[in-house]
From TrEMBL:
Keywords: Electron transport, Heme, Iron, Metal-binding, Respiratory chain, Signal, Transport. The lineage of its organism: Bacteria, Pseudomonadati, Pseudomonadota, Alphaproteobacteria, Acetobacterales. It comes from Acetobacter cerevisiae. This is Cytochrome c. Residues 459-523 are annotated as: Disordered. Residues 1-33 form the signal peptide. Residues 47-164, 211-326, 349-439 form the Cytochrome c domain.
């Protein structure tokens, strides 16, 4: 009997282990949303009433507003496959347990959400629950969307029902085998980690020094779901903080997603946004580039589908909110330029392997000063992403290259070439180690083992950032051609050692748009 009991126990144990494992692996996934304490639902469906109460907006205005909210919430980043119909889903998420595809969220009645009521829609967005009661994978960032207002969701629903073309394209069945495909562990996860709409609303309505900061907090913590990438996750892959109130880990930098590491958005002077001004931030979110760095990997996607469409007022509110987040690491020293590396590269004496590789492969665009030709070719000197504790993004971009997409306000695209075929693991390690130590940068060295490891993890979907989609406002434009290293050197000598390297003194934002890029005022 005890034997039987033991067997049973061990069966139960292995079953729960399996589901525990399933849960952990399900959640151990890119781009994921996550968490905070939960409570029951139910009070979240008052959107119809708020619609009645809300002003005299006519149907078209409502749709236009919904479209704007869809951009602020970046729905297209996950629900539109580059090059195919908007919101028809099918974007693949590689989970350790199999492949999850995003849903068709067009108003098609068979394949999409055309039959959903507003209450059902709102519940899916805020709570991650489908009309049939099944839980959604937190790849859908509902723990952040829980904060979205009734008014915004009402407009968003109007947009998806009346402003989006229905697409009769079946959702691909998920490639997740049974029993891992069972959704009940997700329900448990949701109970434990996702905020209830009530709790989220209370947090959203907390007091702020100014209405602008309140707006910025709403956009960043809510629809923008910036924390889904930029905040560290706990053991069950829940975000360890969902708002600025939850502590200094909020937006203090997340783990690599698809091999791209989201850096800290807090006030840390070297590895965060401490040195960036509000104008730097708005330029970055509007155009994907500024004098200090450029958006690449999945941040390029976030700008491409999302932030570029936001108004100046909203971008400024987000920037001010981010600038109000104190540094997570109070001890960090601010970045100071150090001309030693530039001097070594220019004199061309006895160069280290990393210096040599940099001169041969990188200096044409990023220059011997590391200042680049910002905002077209980003600086590497003083660039927070280059000093990130985790070097994944840097190894990744050197291996695969990346394209900075054109945006409405800066239509030129610029491409960083891929060096994966040309450089060995040891060479990539040497050049990345060099840029992490040169010009006053200071971050850990990278080994060939790190490079080999990342190289193995690259899949076709992570090989490049999203190619231009139909909503891309302009095709790629030829940028200012990279200059030869010799020219770079002679150019640089005419300038003080610091050159245009980030110094805290920046040209006004307009300078970004009038920078010497041929297509800057196109469109
Ligand atoms: C970070 C990626 C991501 C973002 C951003 C995102 N979604 Fe999703 N969404 C998903 C994934 C993945 C699924 C499928 C989850 C599953 O099958 O459990 C999904 C599922 C859904 C569903 C359920 C559809 C169904 O038939 O079950 C709806 C509705 C939805 N999303 C709407 C939206 C809207 C509206 C937005 C913007 C406000 C949005 N999503 C933003 C990834 C995302
Ligand atoms: C899908 C994941 C993802 C989401 C969502 C996301 N980011 Fe990022 N972000 C990244 C990655 C990866 C980087 C590093 C690459 C780069 O610098 O572009 C980054 C970089 C940045 C940078 C540049 C920081 C630096 O030091 O150079 C800023 C600013 C930024 N993100 C702001 C935001 C804001 C604001 C939001 C929400 C509206 C957001 N991000 C949402 C992944 C993401
Ligand atoms: C032809 C010009 C060109 C060359 C050569 C080049 N890069 Fe780049 N690099 C770029 C462009 C353009 C970007 C911006 C890509 C984006 O934002 O998607 C970039 C981005 C980067 C970034 C990310 C910084 C940021 O803020 O966007 C790093 C790191 C980097 N390059 C390192 C290197 C290294 C190391 C080499 C040599 C092995 C190299 N690059 C060679 C053009 C170049």
């Amino acid at each position: 009997m005890s034997r039987f009991a033991n067997q049973r126990k061990s069966k139960i144990f292995s079953a729960s282990l399996l589901y525990g494992l399933a849960l952990a692996t399900i959640l151990a996934t890119p781009v994921f949303a996550a968490a905070a304490p939960s409570a029951p639902s139910g009070a979240d469906t008052g959107s119809d009433t708020s619609a009645g109460a809300s002003t005299s907006t006519n149907a078209q205005d409502l749709i236009t507003k919904g479209r704007y909210i869809a951009a602020a919430a970046d729905c297209a980043a996950c629900h539109t496959v580059p090059g195919s119909a908007s919101f028809a889903g099918g974007y693949a998420f590689q989970l350790p347990i199999g492949t999850l595809y995003s849903s068709n969220i067009t108003p098609d009645k068979t394949n999409g959400i055309g039959n959903w009521t507003e209450a059902q829609f709102v519940r899916a967005i805020r709570e991650g629950v489908r009309p049939d009661g099944a839980a959604l994978y937190p790849a859908m960032p509902f723990p952040s969307y829980a904060r979205m207002t009734d008014e915004d969701l009402h407009a968003l629903y109007a947009y998806f029902m009346h402003g989006v073309q229905p697409v009769a394209q079946a959702v691909r069945p998920n490639g997740i085998p049974w029993p891992l495909s069972m959704r009940f562990p997700l329900t448990v996860w949701r109970w434990v980690f996702a905020p209830s709409p009530d709790a989220a609303r209370q947090s959203t309505e907390r007091s702020f020094p100014t209405p602008e900061l309140a707006r910025g907090a709403y956009l960043v913590e809510g629809p923008g779901h910036c924390g889904a990438c930029h905040t560290k996750r706990g053991l069950a892959m829940q975000e360890t903080a969902l708002t600025a109130q939850d502590g200094p880990q909020y937006l203090a930098g997340g783990a690599a997603v698809d091999g791209w590491t989201p850096p800290s958005l807090r006030g840390d002077p070297r590895t965060g946004l401490g040195a960036w001004s509000v104008a730097d931030l708005t330029a970055f979110l509007r155009t994907g580039r500024n004098m200090r760095g450029s958006a690449f990997g999945n941040m390029d996607t976030a700008v491409h589908h999302g932030t570029q469409y936001l108004t100046d007022d909203d971008l400024t509110a987000m920037a001010r909110y981010l600038k109000a987040l104190p540094a997570a690491n109070g001890a960090e020293q601010s970045w100071q330029t150090d001309p030693a590396a530039t001097r070594a590269l220019r004199t061309g004496g006895k160069l280290t392997k990393g210096q040599r590789l940099y001169l041969d492969n990188c200096a044409a665009c990023h220059r011997s000063t590391g200042a680049g030709y910002a905002p077209a070719f980003p600086p590497l000197a003083g660039n927070p992403v280059v000093m990130n504790a985790a070097p994944d993004s840097l190894i990744h971009i050197v291996l695969t290259g990346a394209t900075l997409h054109g945006t409405q306000a800066a239509p030129s695209a610029f491409t960083m070439p891929d060096f994966g075929k040309r450089l060995s693991d040891a060479q990539v390690a040497a050049v990345v180690t060099f840029i992490r130590h040169a010009w006053g940068n200071d971050a850990s060295a990278v080994s060939d083992v790190d490079v080999a490891h990342l190289r193995k993890r690259l899949t076709p979907s992570t090989m490049q950032s999203a190619p231009p989609t139909p909503i891309d406002p302009a095709p790629a434009q030829p940028g200012s051609a990279p200059r030869a290293p010799e020219q770079d050197v002679s150019q640089d000598t005419s300038k003080p050692a610091t050159g245009p390297v980030p110094t805290g003194h920046l040209p006004p934002e307009d300078a970004l748009h009038s920078a010497p890029q041929p297509a800057m005022k196109a469109n």
